[in-house]
Amino acid sequence: MTPADRTSRALGTVLGSAVGDALGAPFEFGPEGAFSARFPKPGGGGEMCGGGGWDPGEATDDTQMAVLVGESLLECGGLELADIFRRFQRWAVSGPKDIGLQTEDVLTSGEPWDFAAALHFQVNQRAAGNGALMRAATSAVYFAGGGTEATMDAGRRIAALTHGDRAAWEGTALFHELVRVALSGGDPLDALPGALDLVHPDHRARYTAVLAPDWHPDQATEFNGAVWPCLGSAVWALRTTDSYEGAVRAAVDLGGDTDTVAAVTGGLAGAVYGADAIPSRWTEPLQVPLPGFDGRVLRAAELVGLAERLAR
Ligand SMILES: [Mg+2]
């Protein structure tokens, strides 16, 4: 593998996740099969259609938060959790079109960054949503070079800023490791058994079930806004298709939390197939507004620049 391949995979991770997010957003909470009913033929065009309050190509909270994480890592020169939390707070109070309930509660609670999520979890006992997994593309690229332990540890810590449930940390850590494997030219599907060995024992069985080769999203025991079926569906979409486009089409077609399932799928598929595999008709209209940050709106070229710096 050449360094160019690695760079293309890193760009593919960040760009691929953002494209999946924007592609899936108009179909959120829709039924299974809605996407392929409207766009039956892969490569047909017009898929970045907007709707449901989203402009064509507009990315949602998944990508907005991923950008905030990535910019914090670069500007701080490493993991400064308090800084990421401050950026999240500034964004959360600036009226993003979409924000997870769990995430909003924690970020606006007024509690200190290092136990806001834990306090929320203590009271609510529910924090296994996919809201930390969805924003992990940038940190997965940044920490990939540090090896398995370092990247999984960072994934857990960033997840824990908003999600007090260890299930959310472990799913995010798994995503980090799968991206690391892909960026180094390996097959993330082959790496699953080894990665599952590194999941906290209390959570291993549940992830082993949803990441099994014969698991299908129809077998999910929760809505795919939960972290387990979300990651399981993304890996299923990667496993059962042979292209970036095929994988994200399959993800959006599952219905439910389509922007996030497609963002996670798109991050993995982008890491496997590289940035060149992402159709330009999907990257061209891409736009990532950053509420709370002086009206900035990132386009694909800026996401590529961010990913290049994260991959260094
Ligand atoms: Mg979203």
From TrEMBL:
It comes from the Bacteria. Its cofactor is Mg(2+). Binds 2 magnesium ions per subunit. Mg(2+) binds at residues 60-62, 257, 259-260. GO terms for molecular function: hydrolase activity; metal ion binding. It holds the Pfam family ADP_ribosyl_GH. InterPro entries: ADP-ribosylglycohydrolase, Ribosyl_crysJ1, Ribosyl_crysJ1_sf. Keywords: Hydrolase, Magnesium, Metal-binding. The keyword Hydrolase applies. Belongs to the ADP-ribosylglycohydrolase family. This is Ribosylglycohydrolase. It comes from Streptomyces flaveus.
